[in-house]
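Moderator note: this is an archived Q&A kept for reference. The question asked for a predicted structure of one protein chain; the sequence and the answer are reproduced below.
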Amino acid sequence: MADSDGEYVQDASDDEYMGGSSSYGTRAHGKGKGRSRDNARGHQAWETSAKTGLETLKEAADGTIKQSVQEREDERKRKRLRKDTKPFQRGIIRHVILVLDLSEAMLEKDMRPNRYITIIKYTQEYIREFFEQNPISQMSVMAMHDGLCVRVSELSGNPAEHIAAIHGLRTPKNPRDAPKEPKGSPSLQNALELARATLYHTPSHGTREVIIILGALLSLDPSDIHATIRSCVRDRIRVSIIGMGGRLRICQEIVGRTNAGDESGYVVATDQELLRELLLATTTPPVIRSTGPNASGGLNGGAVPAESAASLLMMGFPSRIIDDVPTLCACHGNLTRGGYTCSRCSVKVCSLPATCPGCHLTLILSTHLARSYHHLFPLRNWIEVSWERAKEVGSRECVGCLLPFPDPPSDEELQAIRDEEASSTTDTAKARHSSKGKGNQRMEDGEEEVEQQLASESKRYECRACGSHFCVDCDLFCHEVLHNCPGCLSQADPAAGDGNGEVKMTG
């Protein structure tokens, strides 16, 4: 029996027509109008992005493509460093509500094995990275399904509690309970209302953020969502949305109005890798806006809000204690031997950071504060080093790990490389050649950052402050983990510090 769906010709606009890889069976292979439109149009972005990129690889002198593959691997690593490193006033004490979409749209298999399992895995990784970068912040996880929004974990600063709650969605603690499967439709209004109620009692010195991962293309709202948006703007709640299906006008309006007109917080992930990158990008604290009109129509008249002014915050730094007999903690009511005693009211808490249940004093460790400091003064991006610059400096090994660098080519070989790059007409070669040209010059302070971080032809990356050369692995480690330049630390004079052994960083 012939498939009647194969003769169906959909009279739709060019935006709705999906071409030859539609997920709706044989409708994309219909005859007549649909086929002529398919032949007339050019390749779409989602079609060209599926290419493997092997056609851009170039052979080396020995007939292999090992060198080109290595360059692509270095470029992939340096993509993670594409961020703004200008020092801004940022809110390092964050209160974040992470909202997950558990509607039936998460059963789609465009991400393997499906969207639901993918987001569960990435959410657990995100929670670990979030508290690694923001140790004095707090988070709560919520879920949308069946037109409702339910709380998965309470607002707290303990990542183990959130990870256990996320893991419990698929494997409940009680064997009698069934795993939670995606069903129904999401509700953006209910999610924003529940998040607003959770963040209502948070202190004014911290940021209030809502991060929504939305996979569906609709929202079941019980009433006017625009009134909820106005309430979020009034309560200074910032909303960021990561889509997985397509762009929605209401999501664009939510993000734009809650971020003072900035719609960059609404992005759509086209694959799993991009979804992971977009999710991990939200671990950086947002910039504190001190000027500009209010997004709700200028309620403040462009004045500087009182919450953005610099002020002192009282915190406690308790020491760990070990009791001879188990005692009850004030945070959970559990019997424990170890814990921390509040420096103001002597109440015992299990772990830090936390807010004292007795006197509401913020309790942290000095290491927590130090780990949040790098967001305020980030390490500047390092620049690629050309062969000419490598010969001028004469670097032989990485300053960080002492890995030997490749020897610079001779003048004849270098001229042949330059001639080959000049004759290339691909966009990738043009971008790489432009970047290498900038690598010959030392960028001064105040110059614009290089937006695209490409691989260096000499496998060297130079710190702009001390001129030391590092490999790509040390580049990633220093910017993502260490947040300091080993070359600057080794060349600094301890006598020039502030008297307490602290060395002022300039990198």
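Archived answer notes: The chain has a mean pLDDT of 77.
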